[in-house]
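Researcher: Next entry: 43 kDa receptor-associated protein of the synapse (Burhinus bistriatus).
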Amino acid sequence: MGQDQTKQQIEKGLHLYQSNRTDKALRVWMRVLEKSADPAGRFRVLGCLITAHAEMGRYKDMLKFAVVQIDTARELEDPDYLTESYLNLARSNEKLCEFQKTISYCKTCLNMQGTTVSLQLNGQVSLSMGNAFLGLSIFQKALECFEKALRYAHNNDDKMLECRVCCSLGNFYAQIKDYEKALFFPCKAAELVNDYGTGWSLKYRAMSQYHMAVAYRKLGRLADAMDCCEESMKIALQHGDRPLQALCLLCFADIHRSRKDVQTAFPRYDSSMSIMTEIGNRLGLIQVLLGVTKCWMIQKELDKALESIEKAQELAEGLGNKLGLLKLHCLCERIYRTKGQQRELRDHVVKFHECVEEMELYCGMCGESIGEKNNQLQALPCSHFFHLKCLQTDGTRGCPNCRRLSVKPGYV
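Model: Predicted structure:
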């Protein structure tokens, strides 16, 4: 298969894929991969296969194609191709929740000295790295990466990247419980879709609606949350987007739990868990198990709640997800307090505070914890964040956290 024929077949596959005839598109692209002698064409078709498998939640296949793409990039001996292939490798590992590997491959991308094309990819690299740091609950570094990605998006006038970063920032602020910002950023993403997204994939609309649903639920606006989640789920079903379907089912379950409708929540959690397990989203599984635990606690089935916690703890420890561990210690504390088991209660109180210290989840001004309840936060240029009211009240001549870190221990 020659260069022109390869190009025609790739375009044919794209047309089929955009028309939701995914299986036919995959067959066309696989045929190109088998028969094409054009390395640049093979590289491009591998990119199509990586994107398609990512959207279907077939992350192990995505990783397999990303590895093949790196070999093709080396054959082409072009730093731009190599940067793109390492970015796809980073993304594949991010989807499989291999966050340390993601960070390592992102750093490889950033260290490559390519041309303008590579520099334009740096925003996507920063976004992927930020998502990985967020998965590890390293909040300052996550925020640093998201802000870098946003600067790249603005400098390159890349509205799609800006949209994706806004969704990640929504997720970031939802995790540390600044729900005003958790809603602001996906709303901004939805505006970008409305203003610029005529030719974009509908996944951008679905993604922004899902993150809005999460924020609305956290704010107690359950009807709004349900509307956004239904909109997101409709698009996810139309496009066979299994990862988003799993997230929407989790959000539906959380909404029903917030309404104390546990009987409706449980089957939604089960369906979400089934897809999360199938696609390998271990971070999502932790969230599902947290929701299931809270349902058992509502029903006062404390031993069943502890069983769910045990499964979630194993996953959180395996991933290095510190925020998940903190939440689990918090739930254990409540359970053992109810059971009157003082020794176990004390163990989890100690572990909870160790997690808070490790993640620096406290305000460097007032000393109170961050992420315990809904609070307006403000980040300084160093990406350390504080209660907004503390910054407004006390002001600062620099970051108190950075000042503490720079103080060297003296000799007694």
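Model: Note for the record: The first strand starts at residue 377 and ends at 379.
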